[in-house]
Amino acid sequence: MSAGRVLRWTVGGVVCALAAGCAxxxxxxxxxxxxxxxxxxxxxxxxxxxxxxxGYPCCWYDDDGRPIEVPPGERPDxxxxxxxxxxxxxxxxxxxxxxxxxxxxxxxxxxxxxxxRPTPAPRPMGGGRRR
Amino acid sequence: xxxxxxxxxxxxxxxxxxxxxxxxxAEPARYWPPITDEPTQRHDPGxxxxxxxxxxxxxxxxxxxxxxxxxxxxxxxxxxxxKTYTLVLSGGTPIGGMxxxxxxxxxxxxxxxxxxxxxxxxxxxxxxxxERGGGKVVVSPRxxxxxxxxxxxxxxxxxxxxxITSATGDPADxxxxxxxxxxxxxxxxDAAKMADFYxxxxxxxxxxxxxxxxxxxxxxxxxxxARAGILPRPAQVxxxxxxxxxxxxxxxxxxxxxxxxxxVVMQPAKMHGTTVAVMLDPTGAPFAVAEWPxxxxxARQ
Lengths: 131, 301
Prior knowledge:
The complex is a heterodimer of chains A (131) and B (301). With 131 residues, chain A is mainly α. Chain A has 1 helix and no strands. Chain B is α+β, with helices and mostly antiparallel strands. Chain B is globular and about 50 Å long.
């Protein structure tokens, strides 16, 4: 095999390897693999996310794409499990603060966040709306 | 004309690839905000300590929740929106996050959802417990930046939730204020079976609502407090974990949410001095709102 051919195979191999590496970080989902996570899966990678398994619950929409409303007659007898007494949640105990503490001023030493970028604009197609 | 690259061309191509690799690697890493601004080093197993919206459209969701609850947002990450993390703040306090999910195929329906994260002492052990109980591990335990260790799990009915061991500890255990998370509730087909499933995770003491004269639901208690509930769901809706936001007035909130593109799927209902409603945001994620505390409500009426 000529040196040129060997090099072409080498380049091809590098290209394939890089392509494979990129494919593992295919941009699916906020948990997709990147260096900071050190893994190559995301919520969707591998296709195992339950949205795509028939039979798993997904959405509050009927087959015609309409939101499923719960009629008053079909709602649970007591439509919430919220405790009936405030003392059953935190903060009503004397040992607990009575209210949420004031937010910590930022940036704080060692815990500061990086500079934020603009929050993404809504998607042109209306995002999650039915297409 | 057939072109056969010579050794020189191949070398140039190889060098070009190698030169390009550092450019990609230099892209800012995803930033995973810790769930507390300052380290607390406290851990309250069984508490829902963080909530994330998995959505097809962070921008639309942010506009909606900003209008309805006055939440503000800080987005971190590279230019690619799909690799960003958007922190959700209420009154300047981080209360959750939003991340993009992008389906491999176009979806017929909106399918965003809020996922609550339960504080646990051992994420791997929790994942194993879920599998033994008939659930699934959706995303295996892993460290995420400096936040800590998390896993994304699914109960046997398909309810999605997360578990986390926060590297900075859990937020202080206080009562939420208006426009902040108040409660977490699983709507399940077999509430009793699901209560058994979740019992070991907190671990929780399971309290049947019937024992308190409060219907068929269950409450999951840990650390001396009720942390979450499980409610028998109507047949037509899927098994879902519903996060509750505390609001001053459910009626006003429902009106604002409707005007902002949300859908009311359970009209406001009064019970035990409080009022609750269930809605979908414009990207399809269900959530509930409730007035709290009930005693104050009763006193007001």
